[in-house]
Amino acid sequence: MIDATDPTDITAVINTGDDIILHGLHVSPDLDTVTYTLADAINKETGWGLAGETWEAMESLRAFGDERLGWFNLGDRDIGTHLYRTSRLAGGRSLSEVTAEITARWGIGVRLIPMTDDRVETRVTVADPTVGEVEIGFQEYFVGRHHDIAVRGLRFDGIDRAVPSPGVLEAINEAQRIVICPSNPLVSIGPILAVSGISDALHARRASVVAVSPIIAGRALKGPADRMMNEMGHDASVVGVARLYAAAASVLIVDDADAALVSAVEAEGLRCVVCPTVMSGPMEAKALAQSVLSIEMAP
Amino acid sequence: MIDATDPTDITAVINTGDDIILHGLHVSPDLDTVTYTLADAINKETGWGLAGETWEAMESLRAFGDERLGWFNLGDRDIGTHLYRTSRLAGGRSLSEVTAEITARWGIGVRLIPMTDDRVETRVTVADPTVGEVEIGFQEYFVGRHHDIAVRGLRFDGIDRAVPSPGVLEAINEAQRIVICPSNPLVSIGPILAVSGISDALHARRASVVAVSPIIAGRALKGPADRMMNEMGHDASVVGVARLYAAAASVLIVDDADAALVSAVEAEGLRCVVCPTVMSGPMEAKALAQSVLSIEMAP
Question: Distance (Å, rounded) from C-alpha B145 to C-alpha A204?
C-alpha cells in the first residue's frame, strides 16, 4: 500500500489484544509486525520478527531447561524493541506515545496507533484434549499451541474499561477512506471493533468503509481464521465475513475465487467488489491497494 | 577458593542491594557476577558479564537514540539470565529459589543465597556538580556515573522490612568458618550486615568470623571503596575496615603492604593476620583461601 499512495496520508489502527508481558517485557506482536513490515525489516520467511536476527538471549533462556519459558521466540534485536517499550511505559509514556517513537526510529511514514492505550487481553477458551475447556492467553493459543486446537470462546479482558487511543476516532471521522484490512475478523479486527466508540464511529462512516475479505474460497491464506470462524459458529466464507462487517462497512472486496458468492454477500447488505486479493508480492499488494482506493463509494 | 576446599561445603551470602529492575528485567549484578565467576564464564577483562557476549539487543535499544536508556550494558546471553529470573519471580518463586535454579544450570557447587528475598535497594546520595545533592540508585551511581562522583550518603531502602533468606542464619550459625570477603564494606558487605538478624548472628559467631580487608595500602584494588570510605567519614585503611567489622569479626586479614598497621588494627579489638591478599590469579586466590582456612581461631 505504500506504493499506491503517500504513506504519510495513512493512519493504521492496530490490535493490541495480542500484547503480552513476557518475562517482564511488554511485547506488542501486531504493532511490531506492522512496524517491521513497513520498515522492510521483517523476516519474510516467518512473517514475524526481524530479518537476520540472532537468538543468543533465547538460547540462554532455554539453557535453563524449563520448556514452559521458551515457547515464544524473541530475537536479540527484537528484544531491544521490547526493552525500549517496557522502559518507556514504566517511565509513564502511553503505548501510543511509545509506538510513535518506535515507528520514528524505523523511519516509517504511516502513522501507527494502537487501538487503545489501556490493557486489553484477548483470552481464548480452547478444547484441550487432556484437560477439557480451558482459557488461555492469545499468544499461548497462537504460538504456544500453534493454533492447533479447537476454539470454544473468545473474550477481550479489559475491553469494558478500554477507550480508543488519542487520534483513533479522529482518524476514523476524518479519513477519506477507511479500510478493514484482510486479517482475522475475530481476533485481529474483532478487538479493535470492540473498543468503546470505534464500532459506532465506523458505523457513522460506513459509506466510506471498505473491508477486504481475509477468507478466499473458504480458506484463510495463513493463520487459523477459517477454522476459528467455523468453531465460533460463523460461516468460514466471504458471506460469513460479510455478516461480521455489515454494520461497519458498506463494501466488501472478495477475491476472484469467490465471484460466485457476490449475490450472497450483497444479501447481507454490503456491496461486493470482486478483484484479485492475494498479495503474493509487492506488485500484487500495490494492485490490491489501488483497487481499494479506486472503488467509487456512495456519497 | 574452589581449589582450596570442597565447593559444596561453601555457602555464599550475596548482596542484593545492587539489584535493579531495568527495562522490566530483574537484574541481580552481584549474584550474577559470583555465578558467572564460579562457572568460569565471566568476562575476565571487564569483571562482569559473560565471556564472548554479543550485544545485539543493546545495540537495538540504543538505536532509539535515548541516551538515558543505554547506560547499563546487557549482553544477549546475560539477558537470557534476566528473562529467566524475571519470569520465575513473576511466577511466584522467591529470589533464593530462582538463584538455586540459576546456579544449578551453571553447575556451580557453591551454594549461593541472596541476603534476602525481600526488595532492598541501595540508594546513594551524591554531590552532583550541577544539581547539588541528589539521591540515585546504586547502579546509576556505579555504572551510570562510573562512580566518579562524591558520595554524601547511603541508604538501604526496604531494609526495615527485609528478613534473611531461608538458610542464611542457619549457614552462619552452623559454619565452621565464616569469611567476610574483600569487597566494598559500605555497599557490598554493608547491606548484608544491615539485614535484620544477620549482624547479631555474626556477633554470636564472632570467634569464627574472619574478614579480609578490601583496602590495601589505603587503596581499593578496584572500585570506589577507598574514596567512598573517605567520603563517608571512615578511614580508608585497614584500620577503618577494622572499625567497621570489629563487632562481627574476630580476625582481620591484611595485606603484607599493611604490616605496619597491625597494632593499630588490633587496637580496634580484632586479631590481625598479615599475608598476601592480592588475588592476581587463581593460584594467588587459592593461597589466600588457604590462609583464611588455616588461621587458628579462638575456641
Answer: 56
* Cα separations in angstroms, A114 against B23, B66, B296: 21, 22, 68
Measured CA to CA, the distance from residue A274 to residue A113 in angstroms comes to 30
Relative orientation angle of helices A76-90 and A95-105, to the nearest 10 degrees: 140
- Quick one: cell of B270? 580484632
Residue type, B298: A
Q: Is A161 on the interface with B (CB under 8 A)?
A: no
**Terminal C-alpha separation, chain B:** 24
How much is the pLDDT for B263?
A: 98
- Tell me the CA distances in angstroms from A53 to A94, A103, A157, one per residue in order: 28, 19, 32
A297 SS3 class: coil
Q: From CA A180, how far away is CA A192, in angstroms rounded?
A: 10
Angle among Cα B192, B279, B146 to the nearest 5 degrees reads: 60
User: What does the pLDDT look like over A11-60, one tens digit per residue?
Assistant: 999 999 999 999 999 999 999 999 999 999 999 999 999 999 999 999 99
Q: Sign of dihedral through CA atoms B193, B199, B205, B207? A: positive
Cβ–Cβ pairs < 8 A, chains A and B: 124
Residues ≥6 apart with Cβ < 8 Å to B280? none
Most B CBs within 10 A among A19, A87, A103, hence the mutation to make, goes to A87
Residues of chain B with C-beta less than 8 angstroms from the C-beta of A86: 23-24
Give B89-115 pLDDT, tens digit per residue.
999 999 999 999 999 999 999 999 999
pLDDT on residue A67: 81
Q: Does A61 touch chain B (CB under 8 A)?
A: yes
Give the span between the Cα atoms of A250 and A271, in whole angstroms. 6
* pTM, two decimal places: 0.93
Counting every residue written for chain A, the total comes to 299
d(CA A286, CA A277): 10
* Predicted pLDDT of residue B1: 42
